[in-house]
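Give me the 3D structure for Pimeloyl-ACP methyl ester carboxylesterase.
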Amino acid sequence: MTITHKNASVWYSVSGKGPAVVLLHGFLEDSTMWQDLVPLLSSKNKVICIDLLGHGKSESIGYVHTMEDMADAVHTVLKHLKLRKYTFIGHSMGGYVALAFAKQNTHNIKGLCLLNSTYSADDDEKKQLRTRANQMIQTNFNNMVRMSFANLFSAESKVKHQEAFDAALQIALKTSLQGYMAAQEGMKLREDNSKFFANATFKKLIIIGKKDTVIDVESTIEFSKKHVIDYQVFSEGHMSHIENKEEFLQAIGYFIE
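Predicted structure for Pimeloyl-ACP methyl ester carboxylesterase (257 residues):
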């Protein structure tokens, strides 16, 4: 289904009945990343999957999509569905969007799971990398996407889950140039939400991949311990829903219960 948000078409799907669970994919992904999770959750929950701005079947609204812009599009969908309370699961960039949403609508949030994601802002080095990526992507889209995507999986996973890796890469390659650049700019601008997340009273879970090159694993574990936030560490990289599928499904099922 689609809904219009700021003259752009935003795609979403709804499965099942019960308490609302909102699934937000990451950068260069779309809602199909949740294909194994939706059947598990929709037996007892209303599961809403949303393609974020400039990704999947959702259009772009500009050349900068801040996390707040994306959260506003999510809000348009949830308001249309007349939902008031929900649990969010956000993968990578989807986690940043979930945090931006939660900051603006804290009283509506029952729980939030950061899946291979972080509450921290980009440091200067990361911001420079995003700027450089946006310069290079304009002339070398395919190679840039392939290169950045390959880093998300552990070396073993790329071999072990080659079919799923290839399928996810094909989705990444379908992302529009505008969608790519707008998301990079938005991630670069995002706020540090560590204090907000630490103090939030809704249910929280952080899922970490031990070999994740995107997230600072050690500091995330320290942060979780310090603020008594539930966390789980899986054996592989940034794509836990593929690389550690069974543990991922079990952890999310338990979190939603």
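The chain has one domain: 2-256. Let me know if you want a second pass.
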